[in-house]
Amino acid sequence: MSVVVAPSPVLHTPGAVAGAEGSPDAAVAWHYGDPFGEQKAAVQRVAVVDRSHRSVGRITGGERLSWLHTISSQHLTALPDGHSAENLDLDLNGRVQHHFVLTDLDGTLWFDTEAERGPDLLTFLQRMVFWADAKPEAAPDHAVLSLLGPGAAALASVLGIAALPGEVYAATALPAGGFVRRMPWPTADSYDLIIPRETLITHWSALTAAGAEPAGMWAFEALRVAALRPRIGVDTDDRTIPHEARWIGGPAEFGAVHLNKGCYRGQETVARVHNLGKPPRNLLLLHLDGSADERPATGDDVTAGGRAVGRLGTVVDHFELGPIALALIKRSVPAGTELVAGSAAAAIDPDSVPAEDGVQPGRAAVDRLRGR
Asked: By its UniProt entry, which NCBIfam families does this protein fall under (predicted)?
C-alpha cells in the first residue's frame, strides 16, 4: 500500500533540507545544513529529531494487553502501566511483517511504526479483535519527536515534568498531552515524545530555544545503523525472520520477541531456530569504500567472489565511522571476506558478528538424552 505523508511543518525551519523524494523520510528534514555536527550533538550534547512521519495508533479496552499478547511476539500480560516494549507481527512462517513500539499509559496502549506500514498493521489488528474488549484505531492527531544525547535530561522542565524517565522503556505523561518514553537506541540517552500533532511546532520551538540542536533523520539513521538496529522494510526483506534481525528478547533484553510465552502466529519458526538451528543470515555492520564512483543503495546485492551472499539495507555516512551500512549476510560468510556492495568494496565489522559458540537448548537436551 502506498502511503502519502504530508510534509512536516518543521520543514519550514531555516536550513531544513527534506529527505530525498521517494525515500521513507521525504516528509521530514534529512538535515539542517550540518549533518556530521548534528550527529555529534546527538551523541555529545542534545539534539531533537522530527520523526512526525511515523504512523501512530492506539488501543483501548480492558483486554488490550492480554489480547495483543496472544497475536504478537512480545510478552504483554504483565506490562506495567507507564512502560513500553517493542513488538513484532509475524506470518505463519515466522517472517517479520511489522515492527512497532508500544507504550501502555493510563488505560491506552499507544503504538507507532513506519508510515508505510501503519495502515496494514492497523488493518491486521482490527481484523484480529473478534470478541476481545480491545479497540485499535489510528491516531493521526499524534506525532513523534526524538530527543537524543546526554543533555536531554536538563530539558525535563521544558516539557513540564520533574525528570525524564530513568528506566529504559519507562514512560511519563506530559501535562500538555502525550508522553515521553526512554528508548535503548539509537544512543544511550534516547527519548521519544508522542505528542498531540497540534503541539508539534510548540514543542519543537520550546526545545530548540532551551538548547536542543535541530538534527535531521540523517543523524538518527547514522546512529541507528551504528547501533545495529534494523528498520523494517529497509534493513529487512520479505524473508527476514526475527533471529536474523537481532529482535530476539523481551523488554529486559531490549528485544521484540519474548521466548517464554504462549502460542502466537510464527512461534514455531522462532522456537525451531532458537532450540535447534541458527538463522540463515545475520544482520551485520559493513564499512564501505567511500572512494567508489557510485554509492550503493538499499536492496543492492552484497557479493563475494561474484556470488551473491547478502542484501544491503540502510546506507549512510557516520561522523566517525565514515560510509557504513547494515546488511543481511549469509551466516556462512566469515568476517574477513572481501565483499562488494553494489559497486563499492565492503568489509564486515568483526564486532558486529554474533557469537555462535553456545549450544542451542534443544540440541543440549537431545545430547543429554543420548548421554553425551
From this structure: ygfZ_signature
